[in-house]
Write a structure and sequence with these properties.
This is Phage gp6-like head-tail connector protein. The protein is mainly alpha-helical. It has one domain. It has helices spanning 6-13, 21-39, 43-49, 61-84, 91-101, 103-106. The longest helix has 24 residues, at 61-84. The relative contact order is 0.17.
């Protein structure tokens, strides 16, 4: 399972045609990586979050569900921001917003 597919991102962005598929795919990959980095997740943690697992050694079912929902919001927000501001993106402002969105994950509130 992918937490967010290109089709999910296109629906969120309200992109109906396939003309932007490559762009949306690239921006989605960038958004995912940026959110993983800002949330300070390891590759192993992300693998669990991005899987179908109901729980793990590190997270309870409730924690994993909350983390997934938070990450979905952050990733979709980031993808939309990058899509809408291709020419004049303020990456510092984006990073600060993501720090706020991902604060609980960054500070280990779920660990």
């Amino acid at each position: 399972m992918a937490l967010i597919s290109t089709e999910d991102a296109k629906a969120y962005l309200r992109v109906d045609s396939s003309d932007e598929d490559a762009t949306v795919g690239i921006l989605l990959a960038s958004a995912i990586r940026l959110c993983i980095d800002i949330a300070r997740l390891t590759d192993d943690q992300w693998e669990v979050i991005d899987s179908d697992a109901a729980s793990s050694d590190e997270y309870t079912e409730a924690e994993l569900s909350a983390i997934r929902e938070t990450m979905k919001v952050a990733i979709l927000y980031t993808c939309a921001y990058l899509f809408e501001h291709r020419e004049e993106a303020d990456h510092h402002a984006l990073t600060m917003t993501l720090r706020s969105l991902l604060f609980a994950i960054r500070e280990g509130a779920f660990s």
